[in-house]
Amino acid sequence: MKAATIRDVAERAGVSVASVSRVLTGAGVVAEPTRSKVLEAVEALSYVPHSGARSLSTSRTDVVGVILPDLFGEFFSELIRGMDVACRAQGRHLIVSSSHDDAANASAAIRSMRGRVDGLIVLSPHLDSGALTASLSGRLPVLLMNGGDLDGQQPSMAVDNVGGARSAIEHLLGLGRRRIAHVGGPNGNVEARERKQGYVDAVTAAGTAPILAQGEFTQASGFAAAARLLASSDRPDAIFAANDAMAIGVLLAIQEAGLRCPDDVAVVGFDDVPIADLVRPGLTTLHIDIAGMGRRAVERLLADIEGGVALAPRAANDAVREIITPRLVVRQSCGAPASNQGFSGETT
Amino acid sequence: MKAATIRDVAERAGVSVASVSRVLTGAGVVAEPTRSKVLEAVEALSYVPHSGARSLSTSRTDVVGVILPDLFGEFFSELIRGMDVACRAQGRHLIVSSSHDDAANASAAIRSMRGRVDGLIVLSPHLDSGALTASLSGRLPVLLMNGGDLDGQQPSMAVDNVGGARSAIEHLLGLGRRRIAHVGGPNGNVEARERKQGYVDAVTAAGTAPILAQGEFTQASGFAAAARLLASSDRPDAIFAANDAMAIGVLLAIQEAGLRCPDDVAVVGFDDVPIADLVRPGLTTLHIDIAGMGRRAVERLLADIEGGVALAPRAANDAVREIITPRLVVRQSCGAPASNQGFSGETT
DNA sequence: CTGTTAGCGCCTTCAG
DNA sequence: CTGAAGGCGCTAACAG
Lengths: 348, 348
Prior knowledge:
The structure is a homodimer.
Chain A: H1 6-13, H2 17-25, H3 32-45, H4 51-58, E1 63-67, H5 73-89, E2 93-97, H6 103-111, E3 119-122, H7 129-135, E4 142-145, E5 156-159, H8 161-174, E6 180-184, H9 190-205, E7 211-214, H10 219-231, E8 238-241, H11 244-256, E9 266-271, E10 284-287, H12 290-307, E11 321-324, E12 327-329
Parallel strand pairs in A: 1-2, 1-3, 3-4, 4-5, 5-11, 6-7, 6-8, 8-9, 9-10
Antiparallel strand pairs in A: 10-12
Helix pairs in contact in A: 1-2, 1-3, 5-12, 8-9, 10-11
Chain B binds a DNA duplex through helix 2 and helix 4.
């Protein structure tokens, strides 16, 4: 026995499908007697509208898609959580597509979304604006996040990585640290590049020389990089890592080397993932409201969808780019006293 | 200018829509000349098939939906990651729907999936098997995870919570601990109930009395519960928490109380979320391959979809229930030596 | 091998 | 206020 269709309902209620549609969508006016007959039939058949069919005829899916490079780590999960919240609040669904290691892959994923979503949020280090718009055959509203080489043609959001890094270094300088090293992220990564940039700026502005080490955004790479730095003849008295995962690796390396943090070496990370508040010493880091960013991204996209933004291309500088400013959170790894931290966690 | 449709392609190629459909879907045979003409037109118009329309006519969406209570914590994000991997491997998409605080809410979410997905994975502590099937008007393949009160009518997967808890207690007993307390999860929660059950079983089997405290699966509640336990006249020498988040709260409470772990109090958690390996002391806990579970769940669901399981209801005991057995991972919180742990992390 | 023609399930003018 | 009919974009028999 197959699921009931609108026609079954119409027959059972003794009305036309149009009337059923009217009471179910709330559009148009329906007399009371018919309305109740319809509702009755719906109940009896336990009818549920087929959203796919509805989408086809209304040409709106009430679904937003999100394309991301991968799903590892707390950053992405927090982001998705925020997006989901915003979607639910507006009666939308979220479809996720991840693990897009290269541009071709990501491009295919975007294409496969056609007819499935009303708009797309794209996080892809691999896709520049050109490749992106090429993937979007019929203009679909899009919001770019952390896209890097944007030409301002698309609405976008990004973190102020340069500014964040700079404020981290300034804090360390204020603490009297002078030999401040940086553990950078992977080479191709935009975030990594910008954070390193901010570091170099601030450090040279202070008249000290940059000390650079390379990492891969993983904890292990942070550990390795720090091990090298700590073994050098004149060891740094502070290390700024390009993300929290690496910063935690740095913390472990310091401990391993028999040194003390922050006494011997202060440490600063970036992102403020939940773990940052749980490790010992607590990690000083640049806080980003990740879930909030996700929520905001969906809200903007939905607004663009409603407004038909994708249909009306405008001047290049008209596509709004929103900047998120990270906030420095000082914890023990920079000498803040230990506190009863970590009590907002909701981890299951 | 709207996106090109199959008809546009057909016209430009000078063939019928059927032929276009044939080359695009790979079904049926097409002569070389027509095939290339079609491909050419597709290219020229940068045509992408409308998956919504395709779904309507094939009555398959290539999307699986997942309904979950919320999206907090590493457990769910790992689970989703695993599901996404499996979906991509089979060319499917994943649509997530979370934050279903009560049965009515979850039920509505399930209904709203009709016509949008080919099958559903449901994690809902609030929905029993009856309410669930009621929500599924036209039989949609479903896989239940951690559902609790199942009557075996639906395919399902679950963690052996009782057995896991029991093995934790046995380990502690083997360490010579005799005053073993338990910090349980929220009252209504199935997992919490089963883990407590395993604890009580093992402890009474060993001839010692249960010492119970109540938590809410959050770190803060674990801290509070442990604080109470540690203040009691005869303090426990081991604490088993129903999940890792609470166990970490316990760790902090012990430290706060000026006691040492594991010397004064040993601690065991449940789940083995990534943080468990990063906190100090490293947390002994019951490891579950969360991402693997997610992957497996999708694979089973897809198999059921292919097999048309939902169409052919069978005897009650025919609906397979798969049990995941947790594995005890011993770390410092139970006296294991500290190791250079935590180097598999991929956290961004 | 290719074109024609029904639908898939629903919404939506347009008459009545 | 209601019903009939066309169409959303595509696939799938069925003839040619």
